[in-house]
Amino acid sequence: MPISAAHLDARTATRDGRHDFDFLLGAWTVRHRRLRTRLAGDTIWDDFDGTCAALPVLGGLGNLDDNLLNLPDGAYRAVTLRAYHVEERCWSIWWLDARRTAIDPPVRGAFEDGVGVFHGDDELGGRPVRVRFVWTDITPHSARWEQAFSGDGGATWEVNWIMDFRRAA
After folding, report:
1. Distance between CA atoms of 153 and 101, rounded to whole angstroms?
2. Rounded-to-integer distance, Cα 83 and Cα 63, Å
3. pLDDT tens digits, one per residue of 131-165
4. How many distinct helices (H) and strands (E) make up the chain?
5. How far, in Å, CA of 169 to CA of 156, rounded?
């Protein structure tokens, strides 16, 4: 079967990344591992489960996911909103946590060679921190997300949250 000109153009065009998060669309079960206290030398992790359901928005230039997190001290819901900036070829990601009903400052970044890396600025306990999200191990049935904080402007990082996604049956 011959390859169409449109297919060839799509394969050879400069990749713009607008479909980077298409893997996440649909329903997932999630296994969370979260460091109890951040940037304090803590080594105690909480393990808990959750769910995630993601859908496209903004005509495909974004997505939204609804999360249920079953923390040891009680469940809560949160939403992630992602928007792709075509001109800048990068994503912005916001987290809305139902416990505070506040949107966290965005992280921004892109995927390269199947790994998504996103950085931003936030604060923890009143002090500024750098935030890093990393998406790895992406397959049609699984993915991994990690969050890390840096209290020294990005010189060192502490991974404080890991989410292992499995496609829901």
Report:
1. 27
2. 7
3. 999 999 999 999 999 999 999 999 999 999 999 99
4. 1, 11
5. 39
pLDDT 10s digits, 96-116: 999 988 899 999 999 999 999
Residue 63 CB neighbour total at 10 angstroms? 22
Cα 12 to chain centroid, rounded: 27
Q: Which ranges constitute the DSSP H helices of the chain?
A: 5-12
pLDDT in tens, 58-74: 999 999 999 999 999 99
Round to whole Å and give the CA distance between 146 and 126. Answer: 23
Task: Specify the residue for token string 């965005």.
Answer: 106
Q: Are 95 and 80 in contact (CB under 8 A)?
A: yes
User: What tokens does 20 get?
Assistant: 């980077």
Residue with tokens 């139902």: 98
